[in-house]
Amino acid sequence: MLFHSTYGLRPAVREAADRLRAAGHEVWTPDLFEGRTFGTVEEGMAYKEELGKEELLKRAVLAAAPYSDRGLVYAGFSLGASVAQTLALGDDRARGLLLLHGTSDIAPNAEAEELPVQLHVAEPDPFETDDWLSAWYLQMSRTGADVEVYRYAGAGHLYTDPGLPDYDAEAAEATWRVALGFLETLG
Q: Boundaries of each Dienelactone hydrolase domain copy (predicted)?
C-alpha cells in the first residue's frame, strides 16, 4: 500500500508503483485527496488541514482494509509515510514499513514487535530534523521494530520525485536499490 505526499497522487507516485510492480510486488496507490494535486507543499498542507487528520486517516484505513488480511507492507512519501506509519503500527498483520521522506509521532504504548522498518530521508531535511529523527528512532526501536535509517547528504526533501526541484537522481536510485532489496526480504 503506497501513500502519496502532500502534493497528491502525482505521476512520480504512479511511476514508483510501476517500479515496484516490475520487481514483482502487488501495489495499491490510494488517492487520499480524491483527484486533487498541488503545486506547492503549502497548498497541499492547507488542503490536508482543511480535510483534517481524522478524515485523512479514515480514507487510508478504508483503502487498506480490503487488503490488510494479506499482511500488507505499508509505504509512503512524506505525508504518505506518516500515514503509512500510523497504519502499520495499528495493524498486527503488517509485514513491513517503508518510509520515504517522512515519519510521524509514535504513541507511547505502540508495539511493533520485529516489524521491519526502513526509512530513507534527506540530510539535512527541514521536515525531519536530526533531533526529531534521533527521538523517532529511539521511540520506534522501543516498539520492538527492526529499524534501518538511510540518510542522503545534500538531497532535497522529496528527492525521489523527478517532477520537483528537490529531485536528486543519484540519491533516488540509491534509495530504490536499497528499498527494493528490503522489500525482497519481506516476501
A: 2-185
Q: Are strands 2-3 and 73-77 parallel, antiparallel or unpaired?
A: parallel
Residue 77, strand partner residues: 100
At 141 the three-state DSSP class reads helix
| CB neighbourhood size of 157 (10 A) | 21
Cis peptide before 124 (omega within 30 of 0): yes
22-76: pLDDT as tens digits = 999 999 999 999 999 999 999 999 999 999 999 999 999 999 999 999 999 999 9
CB distance 2 to 76 below 8 Å: yes
Classify each residue of 86-116 as buried b or exposed e, where b means 16 or more C-beta atoms within 10 Å of its C-beta.
bbbbbbeebbbbbbbbbbbebeeebebeebb
CB-based contacts of 47: which residues, under 8 Å, 6+ apart?
6, 33, 36, 38
b or e along 46-77 (b: 16 or more beta carbons within 10 Å of the residue's beta carbon)?
ebbeebeeeebbebbeebbeeebeeebbbbbb
